[in-house]
Amino acid sequence: MKAVILAAGKGTRMKELTNEVPKPMLQVRGKPILEHILDGLIAAGIRQFCIITGWRAEVIERHFRDGHRLGVKIAYGRQAVQDGTGKAPELAKDFIGADNFLLTYGDILVKPETYQQMIERFHEGDFSGLLTVTAGEDVTKGGLNFFDEQFCLKRLIEKPGPAQLDQLRAEGWLKPGQPAWYNAGIYIFRPLVFDFTAKLRKSPRGEYELTDAISAMIATGHRLAGLEIVGRWADVRDPGVLAALEKEAGPERPRQ
Questions:
Q1: Could you tell me if residue 59 is inside a domain?
Q2: Does the pLDDT value for residue 249 go beyond 80?
Q3: Which residues make Cβ contacts (< 8 Å) with residue 96, sequence separation at least 6?
C-alpha cells in the first residue's frame, strides 16, 4: 500500500505562523506535524509516499527530499490552484498506478497504531475504500456520516447546517443517545476513486469536494468500510490546538 498526504494549504487560521512555512511543517515537540504523520505511516509498513504540496512547497521538499533519510521513497505533486480536496489526490494518480493507497491530510495527528488498524479493517472485506470517523466533534464544521449494521458507509453530508440537522432528527437519521460520526479526514481507497474525482463539479463553496466523490461511489454500489478512531485525534486547525499539543504530557490528550 502507498500513501498520499495532502499538504498544499497555507493554514490561514494559523495567521503569521504560516507566513514562511506551510501548516504541516509547524512543529509539535520539536518535529514537524508532517514528520509525525510519516513516522506513523512508516510504522504501519508503508514505504512509498506522495506529498501534495502548494504553499511554500520548497520548505517541505527541502526537509524530506526523496525520503532517503527516513528509509522510504517520497515523490511530490504540486497543487498550483487551491481548488479543493477533490482534485488534489489526482496529482498522485500516476504515482498510485494500480495500487491501493492511504490518504490523509497533512494536519491530522492520530496515534501511530491507527494507520495499522485502518489497513487491517480495509482487508476485512471487499471494500472500495475506508473512511475514518470520530465522535464528539461539531459536525457543522465537517462531514457527518451514517453507517449500516456492518459499519459500512450509507450516507455522507458535508457541513450540515442547523436546519438540516433538525430535518435529519425528524427523519430518524440522528437519534438521541447515538453518536454523530464526524469525518476524521483519513481514508483508504482503491485507485477506482479517480473515476469519481474526474467527474466532480464544484460545490456551492466553489471547490471540488472529495466527499462528493465518496457519495458518488456509494450511490453506484461501492462499499466503504467505516472505522472509529479510538483515542487521540487532533485536527491542528488553529494556534490553540497547536499550543495544546505542545503541552501534551503523554500519548493521550483531551479532544479539541
A1: yes
A2: no
A3: 2, 4, 50, 191, 194
